[in-house]
UniProtKB/TrEMBL annotation:
Signal peptide: none annotated. Pfam families: Ada_Zn_binding, DNA_binding_1, HTH_18. The keyword Thylakoid does not apply. Zn(2+) binds at residues 39, 43, 70, 73. This is methylated-DNA--[protein]-cysteine S-methyltransferase. It is an enzyme of class 2 (transferase). Its cofactor is Zn(2+). It comes from Paracoccus solventivorans. Belongs to the MGMT family. It catalyses: a 4-O-methyl-thymidine in DNA + L-cysteinyl-[protein] = a thymidine in DNA + S-methyl-L-cysteinyl-[protein]; a 6-O-methyl-2'-deoxyguanosine in DNA + L-cysteinyl-[protein] = S-methyl-L-cysteinyl-[protein] + a 2'-deoxyguanosine in DNA. Binds 1 zinc ion per subunit. Keywords: Activator, DNA damage, DNA repair, Metal-binding, Methyltransferase, Transferase, Zinc. GO terms for biological process: DNA repair; methylation. Residues 87-183 form the HTH araC/xylS-type domain.
Amino acid sequence: MDTLPLTPDSAALYQALIRRDPAYEGRAWVGVATTGIFCRLTCPARKPRPENCRWFASPAEALAAGFRPCRRCHPLGAEAEGDAVLRRMLDALEADPARRWTEADVAALGLDPSTVRRAFKRHYGMSFLELARQMRLREGARALAEGATVIAAQLDAGFDSASGFRDAFARLFGHPPAAMAGGTQGLVAEWLDTPLGGMIAVADDRSLHLLEFTDRKGLAAELQRLSKAAGGRIGLGRTSVTDAAEAQLQRYFAGESGDFELQLTLHGTQFLREVWEELRRIPPGATVSYGELAARIGRPSAVRAVARAVGSNQIAIVVPCHRVIGADGSLTGYAGGLWRKQALIAIERKLAAG
């Protein structure tokens, strides 16, 4: 069966959703932004408004974007039939999506935590615990951004206690969520859904300061440095810059454009900014080696320093550090995960060929 494009025509899919068209069964899924749930197009539940729909070519994409499976149409059914371990854990997550899972909980089910971890990494690019944690954080962040109290947000996110909820956000931003919930002055952080997983965007009303996948190693340290620079006043919400970044990312993943027209604030030394600006000159569909990049900035002997600078980029995709590969053509050194690097390069090769 032919697979759908990454983001197929939304008007046609929405009509299929309204009709509950079985022709799309196993080919498309819909995520509802207002509920955080994703469904089959044949789901009998009340239909969302078209502007609240997000379309996916697989349940894995919907899960990676932070959506929970619907309990009425069970959209994960066909995805995990071939893997008993995956099927069992997805069933458990579907039955209790707010549960705060640990490896001890997995072992209590009679399963080997390392086996479960490998199975989820293989299918979804993240572990089961990472998936469960992202779902909780995502729902909590959205509740706070919409003005919910800390306690209400804690309950929505499924944390065991308010202190546990605050600690989770403090680890990311360097200050508790109560300090972030008021107003949109200065820097604000927002969760953005993409087909490759959730991203955190930090912006003010003039420029984008950070754009990272939420499971990137070192994300907490990056956010804490930004928070310190902002006097511990990063809020939750969005600006016109956030809106523009989201719209341009949607066009990118739809295969419509590989160009980003965003004002950026690059936080780093002059050398780091020099490397990052050179990255932005690499066109979509092209790749360069670390040695080639070092030569381009006139520092051919500084390959290791250039590689470290590439790895410390804080604005993923827009500053395309994924376009730098090993001298032998291998995909190396991407903090967002090599599976994402491969997917981004594939998207851009199609853009360049189109």
